[in-house]
Each structure stands twice: as C-alpha cells, then as structure tokens.
Amino acid sequence: MTHPVVVDTIRGMREVVSAQRAAGRTIALTPTLGALHEGHLAHVERAAQLADVRVVSIFVNPTQFTVAADLERYPRTLEADVEKLAGVDFVFAPSVEEMYPSGPTETKVTAGKVGTLYEGASRPGHFDGVLTVVAKLLSIVGPDVATFGRKDAQQLFLVTRMVADLNLPVRIEPIDTVREDDGLALSSRNRFLSAAERRAARTLSAALDAAASAGDRGIDAALAAAQGALMGEPLVELDYLKFVSPKTFMPVDDDYRGPAIALVAANLGATRLIDNERVHLG
Ligand code: PAF
Fold it and tell me: Could you identify the atom of ligand 1 that is nearest to the CA of residue 32?
C-alpha cells in the first residue's frame, strides 16, 4: 500500500483537494495532533468507508495547550506517524507559522458555557483553541466528512455543535474509543505513565463500567458505584466524575432518568487522563 503525500502549506492542501474534487472524488478528514496510535487508525479505517480520498491532519496546535510544559512535551513523531498511515492519500502537516503567521488569531470560535466545564475548567481557553483550529482545518481541507473520537466526548459535542451553529458544510462522524485489553482507553498520553500508574489507570474505565451497571438504580447508585471502584487506588487523583446530558452536555439533575454520559478525569502523577461511557440512568 502506498504512503500518503505530505503537504505542509495551506495553498498546497487546497490545490490537491481541488484536483480530487475536479475528478469527482469525496474527501474525509481526520484531524490529529500526531503521536498516532491504534485509536487514530480506527478513524482512518472508518474514513475509507466514508469517502474516496482520506486526509489526516497532523498539527500540534499551540492555542489549545494552556500549560507551556504540556505543549513542549507533546510528542512530535511526524515520520513515524506517516509510516503508520499506509493507504491514506494525504497528510496535512503545516508548521505553526503556516497556521498562525501573525501569532494566535484575534478572531476565535468560542465554545460557550460547556467549554468552561469539565476539561475546560482546568484548561481555560482550551476548547476555544480546539474549535478555532478545527474551523481553520475544515476551511482549508473542505471535507465532506470529518472524524472525531468519542474518547474526547466534550470535544466531539462542541465540534458537532459548532458545525450545526455555523452551518458548516461537513458531516461529523463519531468514532468509538479503542481500548487496551484491561479497558484503558488508548491515548497519546498513556506513554507518560509509569508501570504503577499504568496499572492504576485501568480503574478509570472500571469506574465507568461500574456506573453503567448500577445506572438503572439511579444517579446516586451509579455515582457510588463509580466512586467505589476509584477508592483504594491512591495513584488516581480524581478531578471530576459527572453525569451529563448527551443533548446539552450539562450535568443532569439528581432525579434524571434516561440516557447520560458518565465523564471521568484524573491525574496520575503528571499525566491527566480522561474517559467516558454512555450509561442509562433509571
Ligand atoms: O483531538 C485532537 O487531537 C485535537 O484536539 C484536534 C481535534 C486535532 C484539534 O487540534
């Protein structure tokens, strides 16, 4: 299988996409920060079923990092990433200067109230940075469909809402989370976990599973079950454990019955992990 053509300019990307469109082909975009793993590969596999031409963007977007050290330590592995993308047509890998020639843009897409909660509470401005760069990527590539992972449930919600609110001509395709055998959701950050932290990390998905099993007994029971799974694991420092509405992404009321998303975020040493699971509260 052939490897993708790497394009690093906006103009070059627009040219290749317009040539594909002229040939009558449809386009799928998978936006990434690079450091690709099996989770990303599930996106490109699905993209092959959705469009004729697959584009993967690899761009470590500085405006969504709220801590300079996180931006610095984010792995940049372009060559290895491109190696993993056999069969993909194009990789769009612009420099920071190409995307932000005058520094962070004054014009921004704002993520609203939901953007300030959960992940947004500990990383103020993160989702404005995400939505702004996603809007730029959608404008540059102009895909028919773009894939976003369910693992980043808040991001998926906000991107889907942005596309609806701004009438952007693209369909958002959610991609299921890929997990290790013990349930840990794949993430580029897992590589930073020590052996002990890695063992402890499985309690996040265990807590979500416990919440899902207890969900029929109501929100208090689901919360207690999840907390029970997390207790006794001293390496997991819980940030939040919340049940939110899939429609609004706001926390559900204590007497809520129906579908919800259980969200969890925790720090394991210097590494922050998030996960989520759809549950039914009854
Ligand atoms: O989820 C990610 O990898 C990033 O937030 C995204 C969507 C590529 C925007 O930089």
Answer: 8
Cα 219 to Cα 282: distance, rounded to the nearest angstrom: 8
137 C-beta closer than 6 A to ligand 1: no
Q: What single string gives the DSSP state of each residue in 58-83?
A: E---GGG-SSHHHHHHS---HHHHHH
CB 240 within 8 A of CB 208: no
Contacts of 139 (CB under 8 A, 6+ apart): none
pLDDT tens, position by position, 222-279:
999 999 999 989 999 999 999 999 999 999 999 999 999 999 999 999 999 999 999 9
1 vs 16, 35, 36, 85, CA distance in Å? Answer: 20, 21, 18, 10
Q: In which residue ranges of the chain is CATH 3.30.1300.10 found?
A: 188-277
At 13-62, the pLDDT tens digits run 999 999 999 999 999 999 999 999 999 999 999 999 999 999 999 999 99
- If you measure from the C-alpha of residue 259 to the centroid of ligand 1, how many angstroms do you get, rounded to a whole number? 26
CA end-to-end distance (rounded Å), the chain: 49
Q: What is the predicted pLDDT for the residue at 1?
A: 80
CATH 3.40.50.300 fits domain 188-277:
no
